[in-house]
Amino acid sequence: MRIDVVTIFPEYLEPLNVSLVGKARARGQLDVRVHDLRQWTHDRHHTVDDTPYGGGPGMVMKPEPWGEALDAIEASGPQGTAPVMVVPTPSGRPFTQRLAVELSAKPWLVFTPARYEGIDRRVVDAYAERWEVHEVSIGDYVLAGGEAAVLVITEAVARLLPGVLGNAESHRDDSFAPGAMADLLEGPVYTKPPVWRDRDIPEVLLSGHHGKIARWRRDQAFRRTSALRPDLIERCDPAALDKHDRAL
Ligand code: ADE
């Protein structure tokens, strides 16, 4: 997968050199290119923002540098191929595991993290006529810019790429992964030592009884979800949960 990021703070994306994403890049599984938006400005001050039409506080990002940046990035790819544009914005649709899975199947993503009050609307409108565009929010809060959202979305997507996670099974039981535990949060996990500060681990985990362990994990997941995310229980298909129970 190729990922382009256009930003006025390229250094903000440096964590993409570290850990899972950094390793995927080093292995050639992920081609990440970070671009400074100001390279597509032409005035002495490299201006990227201006006052909003209609008045109001703050500044709006000018459309011209974004248009030049996105055209240049498109031209740098295979002829006739358009990237999928991902626009981080608090007014986007919520980022979910489902969208991470959808994006992980795309060969090429371009992120356009904004600062200030956002990008002139005509940019998204213009590219949406030619490209697939997703306006995405990582949560109901307002960040100072979209760069942190790019880090979040990239990590969620990269770990789904084939061969990126060491153990192909490791995202099967993730909270929010599709499957038997769909829509349940992951329950607690334990490792050695068996006693720590007088605290034992749940006995069932030492039983070697795979059916009982699976049953216990599902119950824990269900309890945790009921306590912390009752909205997810509401959305659960009771028939699917029952089917899973009978299979144990
Ligand atoms: N930019 C500012 N806040 C954001 C959010 N919550 N999600 C995505 N991009 C953002």
TrEMBL record:
Record EC number: 2.1.1.228
GO terms (molecular function) for this protein are: tRNA (guanine(37)-N1)-methyltransferase activity
Domain tRNA methyltransferase TRMD/TRM10-type: start-end pairs: 1-234
For binding S-adenosyl-L-methionine, which residues are annotated in this chain's numbering? 138-143
The first-level EC class reads transferase
The record's annotation in InterPro entries points to: Alpha/beta_knot_MTases, tRNA_m1G_MeTrfase_C_sf, tRNA_m1G_MeTrfase_TrmD, tRNA_m1G_MTases_N, tRNA_MeTrfase_TRMD/TRM10
Main localization is cytoplasm
Q: So which domain of life are we looking at?
A: Bacteria
Q: Which Gene3D superfamilies match?
A: 3.40.1280.10, tRNA(m1g37)methyltransferase, domain 2
- Coiled coil location: none
Catalytic reactions of this protein: guanosine(37) in tRNA + S-adenosyl-L-methionine = N(1)-methylguanosine(37) in tRNA + S-adenosyl-L-homocysteine + H(+)
Q: Which UniProt keywords apply?
A: Cytoplasm, Methyltransferase, S-adenosyl-L-methionine, Transferase, tRNA processing
Does the UniProt entry include the keyword tRNA processing?
yes
Compartment(s): Cytoplasm
What PANTHER family does the record point to?
A: TRNA (GUANINE-N(1)-)-METHYLTRANSFERASE (PTHR46417:SF1)
Share what the entry says about its subunit structure, partners included. Answer: Homodimer.
Question: Would you identify the family this protein belongs to, as annotated?
Answer: Belongs to the RNA methyltransferase TrmD family.
Q: What is this protein called?
A: tRNA (guanine-N(1)-)-methyltransferase
Q: Could you tell me the gene encoding this protein?
A: trmD
